[in-house]
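Tutorial handout. Part one gives the primary structure; part two gives the three-dimensional structure as tokens.
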Amino acid sequence: MTKPIQVWMAPPGPNPWKVVVILEELKVPYEIRSIRFENIKKKPFTDLNPNGRVPAIVDPNAENLVLWESGAIITYLVEQYDPNKILSGRSLSEKHHLNQWLYFQASGQGPYYGQAGWFNNHHPEKLPSAIERYNNEVHRVLGVLEGCLEGKEWLVGDRITFADIAFAPWNDRLDDVTRCASGDGFKGFPNVQAWHERVTTRPSWTKSMEIKAKLMDEQDLTMVGLPKGVKSLQEWEKQIKEQDEAASK
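Part two.
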């Protein structure tokens, strides 16, 4: 009998939800270990991931194997828990094209979306050149996806795969990342929008987002990840520092 895989996460970030949706699709038992943002770079979590980033997993079915980096986790999960190739490649070319897209998501989409989100929403001063650069990079990534999805429903093959799922959590934050009007994030990229909607209308996504909303509510967080009543990341970080200093006295 398969024991639940532990998924360590802070609920606001997009990367843990790639893992959760894939586990839901594969019907693999899991349990979420939800931690607060201020504890990501502290023990006990840094004993699992010294880089202090989420997600990380612990698999009790494999001698308590610990893995971090969402791409590595996804690769492991489909190798170990997808024998019927539900989300995996069924041929040599499919296998390697899926890995190609996963690397592009991890090296292209995630970092550029993250930097755009930072300079649009959290940097303490507005830097128009940085905002322009990273918004342009977001649109460049969307352009790559738009062209490759022309005449296709999915990135590889004729069904959803882990590659499609890997892109969805960051694309779901597109409006916030680029600070555009609600619903305008996909403007000019109809193929990407239709593809994203195919992923996010699946039961696995719906259930995962229900879990996310519950965890966010438990931590009293807004949908942008800040505690309710806190206006900026800098204000929150100041509060965390003051709390840590008080606890150490």
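Part three, for discussion. DSSP finds ten helices and four strands in the chain. The mean pLDDT is 94.
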